[in-house]
Amino acid sequence: MTRITRRAFIETAAAAAGTSLVASAVWPLDSPVAAAGAIPTRPFGKSGVRVSIAGLGGGGRFFEPVPTDEAGAELVRQAIDRGITFIETCANYGPKEDANRSERRIGLAMKTHRAKAFLETKTDQRDYDGAMREMERSLKLLATDRIDLMLHHFIGSAKDLDLIAGPNGAERAIRKLTDEKVIRFRGFSCHDPKLTREAIARLGPDAIQAPINATRNPDFEQEVLPLTKAQGIAVVVMKAVGHGFFLKGAVGGAFDSRFKTDKNPELHRYAPPEKAFESRVPTPAEFLRYAMSLPVATVLAGWTRPRRSTGSPARPRPSRPPRARRRTTSTRGRGCSRDGVLDRENLAGDWLQAAGYRLQATGYRRRATGDREVAHVPHDC
Prior knowledge:
Blueprint: H1 6-17, E1 41-43, E2 50-52, E3 54-57, H2 60-63, H3 69-81, E4 86-88, H4 101-113, E5 118-123, H5 128-141, E6 147-155, H6 158-165, H7 170-179, E7 183-190, H8 193-203, E8 207-211, H9 220-223, H10 225-231, E9 234-238, H11 265-268, H12 284-292, E10 298-301, H13 349-354, E11 357-360, E12 363-366, E13 375-376
Parallel strand pairs: 3-4, 3-10, 4-5, 5-6, 6-7, 7-8, 8-9, 9-10
Antiparallel strand pairs: 1-2, 11-12, 12-13
Helix pairs in contact: 3-4, 5-7
């Protein structure tokens, strides 16, 4: 498969580095505030609208570690002021006792920043009445009279799709609000490439949201992206850094990608063995750049702490990595060539396998090494 060109790598990496995007998908925003618009924009499918290449994810990495509503709202404000104007959330992004948390916090920021934001939310309801009630609630929580992108959240089965697309399904509710100009664009999120293709054929969406990263597992890159590109469907990327499990912070088994709302903690609280990080491995920046090199509209990342700062944007890093990190003989490092250009054929697959993982259709499963085997089941936030 075609590798990312040096020109594309430099353009994407330089722009991202200048606005702190490449710090990580889960680390705090801690670089100086840049002027709005500093982050590049891309076409949102065939709509004629442009959105920021980076988006702020409103899921668990946003609503749980951020301590208060105001802190969450301030994080959103700062993201928008930095040029990260694509804001993602969902009707039930929040802990069981406070399911409105994400939308409520984003709504506080929308009171001052709505005009600069491209706002996405989702409905979990599959029927017309339920979806209508949930979308009305979202509008109130988000303090807005319009939604830029409304998605069906996590189509997980053919039965889900049948319910949504049925005569009394949630798709009818979304289309009604689209006709009334309350919703600009519509679509769905899904974790399965085959089901995604079926949903595209039945729903005719403006956009989809999918877990796409350098492991290409599941392989949306080959099975879905050619179709979305041909049809002008915008693609919103989630899980570009494996929900945090591809980072060194996951060493030791204490990392919990879902925090306190995790209903299946044993499925998610695992990490690569420490030795996996001894050699050259893809960085969070590289995982994000990889996703940005694909024909997608925006790549979501979950930041956890805002930091008020002033000054000029950080200077872009050179595209060539430091000599000490330029390792090409290790299996774990084969994803990056000597000049830092990312190899779309195999950025992280070799590393994950060398670290003790075998790639499966349902996610990533750690080989048993004394302790019992556990698996990571991807989620949609």
